[in-house]
Amino acid sequence: MSKVIRMLSLSAVIVAGLTTLARSQNRPAAALPAGEKAVKSAFDSSDPLANWTITGDVTIDVAKSRQGKGCSLKIGPGGKALLKLRDRDESGRIDVWIYDDGTTPEDVKARRVGPRWGLAQSDGKVLAAGILYANYLGGDEGYT
């Protein structure tokens, strides 16, 4: 009987510990330091690219919206759009919605780097995600 009680106690402690761990992963964002504002970029304003550094083929696409609201940033081949969020590196939260129009290169098995997006620190270090093409990947079938 005492063995069963000990197991139940241990299980309760583990479950309580996991609950605390899971809750700690979703803490609300800390307040911004005095004088700083959160950066929000919407592409349906009067000058949507005012705070962006643009290189190459970058336009506003009024035909593509997110859930029926606003416009989207369209970056063509070789284009680059950079939005500086802060002067110093800090943690924070960024929400981005990526739309891939499904365009594929003529030879989907040829090795190349496709579209990519991510974050850059002030020292040049980058965290990026993107699409890769290689002969061992099924580029004509999807992201495999």
Task: Provide a quick synopsis of the model.
The protein is of the alpha+beta class. It contains one helix and six strands.
Descriptive overview:
This protein has a domain at 101-144. Strand 5 (112-120) and strand 6 (126-133) form a beta hairpin. The protein is of the alpha+beta class. Helix content is 16%, strand content 23%. Strands 1-4 form a two-stranded antiparallel ribbon. 1% of the residues are buried. The protein is built from one helix and six strands.
How many helices? The count is 1
Order of strands in the sheet with most strands? 1-4
Distance between the termini: 53 Å
Q: Which assembly state applies to the chains in this document? A: single chain
Largest sheet: 2 strands, antiparallel
SSE diagram, text form:
Blueprint: H1 2-24, E1 52-55, E2 58-61, E3 72-75, E4 80-83, E5 112-120, E6 126-133
Antiparallel strand pairs: 1-4, 2-3, 5-6
Summarize this structure as a short list of keywords or feature phrases:
two-stranded antiparallel sheet, 144 residues, 6 strands, alpha+beta, single chain
